[in-house]
Specification:
This protein has 447 residues and is of the alpha/beta class. It contains nine helices and 39 strands. The structure holds uridine-diphosphate-N-acetylglucosamine and calcium ion. It is found in: Cytoplasm.
Length: 447
Amino acid sequence: MKTTSIILAAGQGTRMKSELPKVLHSVCGKPMLWHALQAAQSVTDETPVMIIGHGANQVRAVVGDAARFVVQAERLGTGHAVQQAESTLKGNTDLVLVSSADMPLLTSETFNEMIRLQKENDGPMTMLTIISDDPRGFGRIIRMEDGNVQAIVEEPQATIEQMAIKELNVGAYCFDAKWLWDALERIPLSPKGEYYLTDTVGLAVEAGMKVQSLTLEDPVEAVGVNTRIHLSEAEAGMRLRVNRLHMLKGVTMIDPQSVHIGMDVEIGQDTVIHPNTYLRGETKIGAGCEIGPNTIITDCTIGDRCEILSSVLEKARLEDDVDMGPFARLRKGAHLAKGVHMGNFGEVKDSYLGENAKMGHFSYIGNATIGTETNIGAGTITCNYDGENKHLTEIGKEVFIGSDTMLVAPLKIGDRARTGAGSVVTKDVKDDTLVVGMPARAIRKFK
Ligand code: UD1
Ligand code: CA
């Protein structure tokens, strides 16, 4: 039996008050619809069909070939939206799983359970409900005396008694495809001038068929995003879900509420993540590290037993046993070898620091390679930019760069060389040599 997913993403999301289509707003670093796609993809057989309309081009550009797109030119309701997929799917699938791109917390486990229920029963559809004291404008589930679902009543059409019903429609369904396409033709026009997908329930019951339902246990799954308040709830729900998974795999979090971890991040066992820490993008962290507090790491690879305190790292690589911070900054192309120590107010960009190199205080190292066991004194700067081009600085091993040295690139400093405090080095230095002094003097007039 073949199952295909339809994801509804055509709505405008007016209440977000945003230039950006609602479904592209981020939840834990990924667009909201990415989460809906992931969950659907993993339980269905074919590439999901996404119904787009508002901001269609932007949505297409973000999703790429992870979905097949069908444009709903006029937004005439959820029933009408699903109908747009008929020409793509009719005859090509046995079951149709319908969900919305604005429900990023529904899990593949839930979808799987719905599909299983639908396969095991003869009814035309299985729907998802939640029992909640907060109705959130969701449709109310009307049940018959025998407990079976009779209808879904949308809030604007509900009577006062119906409004009090605590069982709500989550908005995810698994349909028998053959039945669905015919039923969509028979949906009546609602008083609001829309074709409601929810009316398929009433149609099935009128025809004497039984509608299956699955009730969610975890209310977080049913968070649907219509406003920025809901968006923050989705973010918080997803954040805790991600953090719990890491904790179950052996990562300690002092305060998981304040730890923000992207969907693609990997963290090794016995690493401790301190409060107010952001791990984003394609970041990989080894085992036994101490990260944070107050640290932002984006697209980095970090070895084992590293300690990073109050620092900002981007597109950098740290080998094992590196310790850095507080207030260190790594930019793209920074590579710190095993055992490097980097103290406060340092910045490294496009540079390699060899094993056990030390850079304790206030330094800028850019476009440089630094040998093993070399010490970079406080205030050292690689003057790598002449206003037009970047130049390289190569420093050998076991070098001692005195405090406040200016290294004017291009420049090579030999192994075990030393520079005196405050030197301005403009010429290459041979191995085992001490240089001192400041050669600054007028050499040219600018035109
Ligand atoms: C819908 C359900 C409601 C349920 C709620 C759960 C209907 C009529 N009502 O209400 O019972 O409790 O979801 O969140 O289905 N969309 C389109 N094209 C359209 C209209 C909507 O693609 O013409 C998409 C929207 O972008 C959204 C989804 O369908 O992703 C749901 O539409 P929305 O207008 O938000 O429906 P609700 O009023 O929330
Ligand atoms: Ca909605």
